[in-house]
User: What shape does this take?
Amino acid sequence: MSTDPAIAPPLDKPTPPKLFWSDVVLAGLGLSTTILSALSLALLNLRAHVALYAFLVWGVIPGGAICCGLVSAIGFELGARVLGKRPGRVARAGILLSGPLGYALIFVFQYLLLDVNGTPISSVLSFGTFVDTVIRGATIKFGSTLHTPQLGAAGYGLVALQAGGFFLGGLGVFAMPSMGRPACAQCGRYLSEPATVTGSGTAAELRPQFAYARKLLSEANSKAASTLIGALPQNDASHRLRLETRACAACELEYCRLSVLEWGYPAPERGKQPPATWIPVTGLDVGGQVSAAGMGQKGVSQV
Ligand SMILES: [Zn+2]
Assistant: This one.
């Protein structure tokens, strides 16, 4: 939601150099499904004459290509889960590329695998001629009986439509859970589940406690802030002060979100009113990195 400042910093922070190679590994894992799915689709088309990626909804929406583009890029989501790391710049470029690349590879694999009476097509035709022949020879099927004639030059329009479908499908990975999970700003690893401490009171009572806890956090003292909030009354007062702390296991960095909450209704989403819940009070809701203590100690011991 737009009213929630993220605990993790925005995604467009530059990737530190030491993360480059782990991001390359993630991109490699992602592109492996791109290659595998293109190979499978090419084989299915050659052996069974089923072109899943060519399926059009209402004759115009490249539904098959969108689904295949998503499958083609799904390795980035799976890879991020396996590595426990959010996609960085290299991997995100890979996601953008994955759909169109997967589509192009279908042509490459068909060219390499197709033979006519035992003669590989690649020994007779150049790749460019092969692709041009396939594209111009395409037809569109409506139902089980109605076929258009071969499209000729209009086949290139169909190719553009399908390539666009693959691209859109690949973008679907950006909406998957691994892209939105809170991650460490320094190393990109996913953070632990939040440790939460709350205390109750009226808005007037909690406002100074919020300010004091915030000061402690700015001094990298999240322990004292937790103790402060944990010592507040735990009852059914109108407001709550909540501190959520997440940690990066690798960098020993802490990230927090400190909020005063009141019971109320969140903003409607898509015309629907969500049920009442504890929502942050505007201006009393902050988040970010707490402490660089682990890093600082490392620096000292090196000197
Ligand atoms: Zn980290």
Notes: Residues 184, 186-187, 189, 248, 250-251, 253 surround zinc ion (CB under 6 Å). Strands lie at 115-116, 119-120, 141-142, 146-147, 195-201, 239-247, 254-264, 277-291. The longest strand covers residues 277-291.
